[in-house]
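Q: Start with the shorter request: fold the first protein.
A: Done. Sequence, then structure:
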Amino acid sequence: MASPAGRDAAAHDWTPARSAAGRHSPWLIAMIISISAFMEVLDTAIANVSLRHIAGSLAVSYDQATWVLTTYLVANAIVIPMSSWLSDVFGRKRYYMFSVALFTISSLCCGIASSLTMLIVSRVAQGLGGGGLQPNTQAMLVDSFPPASRGKAMAVYGFTVILAPMLGPLLGGVITDRFSWHWIFLINVPIGLLSLSLVSVFVDEPPLLVKERRERWRRGIHFDFPGALLIALGLAFLEIMTDRGVQDDWFGSPLIRIAALIAAACIAGFVIWELWTPRPLLDMHLFKNRNFSAGSVIVMVIGVILFGTTQFVPQLVQQVYGYTATDAGLVLTFGGMITIVTMPLAGVLTGRVQPRVLMGIALLVIAVSLWMMAHFTVDQTFADIAIARTWQSGAIPFLFVPLMSAAYIGVPPQRTGNATAIINVARNLGGSIGIGMVQALFARREQFHQERLVSRLQPLNAAYVHAVHVLTRMFASRGAAPAAAAHMAMGQIYALMQRQVLMMSFDDVFWALMIFVIVISPMLLLLKAPPARHGRGGEATAKAESVTEVPF
C-alpha cells in the first residue's frame, strides 16, 4: 500500500511538460518516430534469409557470414543500456537524430560493401546507431501520452516490433531473389532520410528536458564507466554465446565456455555495482515496482517466443518443404496481415479489459498455434503452415500492447529513459535466448532422431529390404545398371529418412515452445490490475493508474 506521500508523488507520474509533441498532435509524433523504429527492427530480421547469398558473393563460408547478424546484435546490446544517459546528456531529440543519421550512413556502407570486413565494420556502426532508436522511441511515447491513452499509442509503436520481424524475411527474400542482397541495406537510406526530415520539423525537445539537461551539465557530467564496461562486456559475450552456440557445439567449445563465464560474471557484477553506486547507469531500483519488474521479465519471454519462432518457421519451410527465400517470407507475411487488424483492436481493448485477461487469452491462442505446428508432417500444405502462424501472429498484439502499457504504470517520469533501456535490453536478451534455445534443441533432437532411424536401415529390417528391392527394380526399369540402381534406391530411402528426421525435430521444438508458453503463463499474476476507470477525458483514469505504484 502506497503511503500518502508516495501517492502524491505518483499522481504526477505523467506531465505534458515532458511531451515530445509540442504544439503538434501526439499521434502524429507516434507515427513519425515509429518510422525509424520500424527500420531498425526490420534490419534485425531482413538479413536472415540472405546469408547464403552474402557468403557466396563475398567468397566466405556460411559460418563467417553469420557474423553479419552477430556483430549487429552485439553492438546493439552494448549501446542500449547507455542510451538513457546519452539522451539525458546530449538531448533526447539530438541523440535520436544522431542515431538515425548513423544508422542511415552505415546502411549505405553495408550496401556498397565489397568485402566481409567492410560489411562487418558497417554492421557494428549500424548496431550502435540502431541501439539508440528503440529506447528513445518508447521514452517519447510514454512522455507524450497519459496512461489512459498509452495503450493505443503502444499499439502504433507495436507495429514496429511485431510486424518488422514478420515482414523482414519476406522483404529480404524478395529483394535477394529479384535484385541483390546489397539492396536489403540500401533501402534504409531513403527511409532514414525521411525520418530525419520529419523528426527535425515535428518532434519537439521539451523545455523541461532542456532545463534538466542544463542543470545536469551545471552540476558536472558523471559517467558510470565501470557499470557501462560491465554491462557492455556481459551482453556482448552473452550475444556471442547464444548466437554461436549451435555452430560451436555449445559448452563443448572453449570459446562458448569462456563467453558464458565472462557474461555471467559481468552481468552479476553490473547488478551489484548499480545497486551500490550513487549514480548508476541503469537504476536497478526500478525493479521495486512490481509491474515494471514483472513486465521486464514477460517482455523477455515474448522475445523468446517472437524471435525464436520468426527465425525458426522460415528454416522449417526451406529445409523440409524446399521453399525459396521469397516463399519462406510469405508464410510469415500472412500472419503480419492479421496483425494489422488485431493491433489497433488490442490498443482499444487495453483501455477496457484487464491486461491480465487479454494477455492470458493471447498466451492460450499462442499455445494452440504451437500445438498445431507440433503436429506438422512432411505433407503439410502452405495454407496449413500460414494458418498456424496467423493464429500466433494475431495473438501477439494482445500480449504486447497491454504489457507495454502496464509496465510503465508508476514509473517516475525522470526515470522513463532508464525504464525503456531496461525493457529493450530484456527484449533483445529474450530474442537471443529464443534463437539460441530453439537451434540448440533442434540440433540435439535431430541427432537423436538421426541415430534412431538410421539404426533401422539394415538388412534385418524386412520393410527396409522390401523398399530397397522395389526402388531398385524401378530404377533398373529406367535403364540404370543393377549396381547403380541399388545405390540409387538406398540413396532415395536415406533422403526420405533425412526429411523425416528434420520434420520430427521441428515438431519436438514446437512442442517444447508450447510447454514453455504454458509454464510461464502464471507469471501474469505478478502484474497488478489497474484500478477501476472513472472520470472524464481520461484525467481521473490517468491519476488512478498513476497511484498503483509502491513508492520508491
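Q: Next, the second protein, separately.
A: Sequence, then structure:
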Amino acid sequence: MIEIDQLEYVHANGIPALRGVKATLESGRWTALIGANGSGKTTLARCLNGLLTPTSGAVRVDGVTVARDSVAEIRQRVAMVFQNPDDQLVAPTVETDIAFGLENHGVEPTQMRRRVEEILRRFHLDHYRSHPPHLLSGGERQRLAVAAAVAVQPDFLILDEPTALLDPTARAELMDLVGQLCQQGLGVLHITQSPEEAARAERILVLHEGLLVDDGTPRHIYRQPASLRRIGLAAPFAVEVAVAAGGGAAQAIDPVELSDWLVRDFEAPLEASCEVASQPASGAARMTVEGLTHIYRVGVPDPIMALQDVELAIPPGSITALVGPSGSGKTTLVQHLNGLLRPTSGRVCLDGEDIWNDGDGRGARREVGLVFQFPEDQLFEETVAADVAFGPRNHGCSAEEIEHRTTDALNKVDLPITAFGTRPPLALSGGERRRAAIAGVLAIAPTVIVLDEPTAGLDPANEAVVADLLSRLAADGVSVVLVSHDMDRVAELASQVCVMDQGRVRWQGATRQILESASRQREDEQPTIEPPAPLRLSFDLRLRGWQAPSLLTRAEACRFVGALRRRRVPASQPIQKEQSADARTDRE
C-alpha cells in the first residue's frame, strides 16, 4: 500500500505543483491519474519513489516513509517508467537492458536468464534481443522500458504516459498486460491523457492545478463530460457519443457497451447515409519520394532494411498523415525529407529538384522543418524568445526579420511573446514547451513542416491547439506531414493517408477510403491499422445488422446517433454493478 499524506511540493521558483494531496494506492489495483499538462501528475509520481522530496507531507510504502535513507528500499518496491524511454535505456542491447536492473538487484544468473527470456517473449522483443536500443522505433523503445521495469518484479509500477508512442495494437496489448499484472498482485499508477485508457482502470484520480479534485470509478469520473472539459480534459469516445444520443456514462463507458446500448434501445437506420469522400489536395506535389531505400548498419552481418522502394507524393496546402505499426519505417522516412538521413538508394525531391544536388542537403533544411518526437528536448536557450529566434538567426535573417518571425511564430502556437518571451523554457508546462519547440521550427518559415507524434502526451486542450495550428498552416499553403498513432486525430485532420508496414508503403490515398480499406478485417490477413473509434463503431454496428455509414470523426458519429429514433420501450437501466460502486464512492 502507498499512503500519500497531505503532500505538498513547491518548485524552486515558488510555484506550487502539489497542494495537500491525500490518497491511498492499493496493491493489485489499477489506478489511473489524469489531469491537464502542468497539473502535477509527474511531480506526484516522482515523489512516490523518492525522485523528488516533498516540501511537506509524507509518502509511505508498506509503512516505510519515502526519505533519503530509505530510497534504495523504496525503489525496489516502486518502479517507474518515464514518458520518454530514452531517459532510462542504458545498455548496449535490448537483452542486456532488461538484465541491467536484475543485476543491480542481485538476481542469481540462472534465474536472471530465465526471467529475461520470459520478458522478451511477453513484450514481443525477442526478435530484437541483440539490437541497440537507439535503433528501435520510439514505440519499441517504450515497450523495452516497460519490460525492463516489470522484469525486476516490483510491488508497485508507476507508468508515466507509457503508450504515448505506441501504435494502437501495441497500446492495447500493453493495457491488457497491465490488467494481468494487477490480477497477479501488482499495484499500478497509470498516468495518461487517454480517456479510453483511464476508463479501463478500476479507479481514477483527477488532479487540477496541484489539487486532487475527484476520485472514483471511471463511470463516476466521466458522468459529467462538460465539467472535465472546463479543466482541459475529455471523456471517452463512447461517453461523448452516448451523450449525443441522450445518455451518458451510465449507458456506455466503452465501445462494446455503446454498440450494445444503441442496438438495444434505438431503431436501426433504414439505410446508410453516404458520407462525402475526403479527397487529397490536387495539383503538383511539393515533395516527392522516389524509390527510396534505406539500410541501417550497412556492411555488418545483420543489416537492417528500414525502407524499401518507398514512393510518396506530398501536395502543397495539405496534411499528409503517415501511419502504421511501430517499426514500420515512418520516422526513418521523415528524417529523409530534410536531409538528416541520406538514401541508400532512390531520391527525395523538393519542387522537382533532388535535395542532395547541393552535396549536403543543406538547402532542404531551409525549406523543410522537422519537429521530432519530444521536441521540447530541443529547447536550449535561456528564454523562449531566444530559442525561437535561433533558427532565423542561424539562417542569416536581419534583426528586424528575426523579431518579426519570432513574434509571429509564438502567436501561432498561442504563446504570445509579451507573456512568454522572457520565460525560461524549463519554467513552461509540458504542453507549453511542446508548442514553443514547434514555434522554433515555424520561425524558419518552412514550406514543408514534418511533425513526428506532435500531440503525444498532450492533454486534450493542448492537442486542440496543435490540431488547429496544423489546419491553419495547411490553409496557408504549407505542406504538413504528420506522423501519428492517434487514428482519431488523423481522421479529423488529414486529407490523405500513407499506411506503412515493414518499410514499405502499403496504402496511399484519400483519408476516408484508405482508413476504411486498411483497417477492415479480411479473412486471409489481419488489418494493417486499427480504425479510428468512429469507424470502429461503424464496423461493429454493421456486424450487428445495421446499415451504418462510414463514420470517420467524432462529430460524424455524434450527428449519426443524434438522429436515431428510440424504440418504444422503456430505456435500459444503467449497469447496476458500476452504479453501486459509484454510490459507494459518492458516500465516501
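Q: Describe the second briefly.
A: The chain has 23 helices and 20 strands. Residues 339 and 359 are 10 Å apart (CA to CA).
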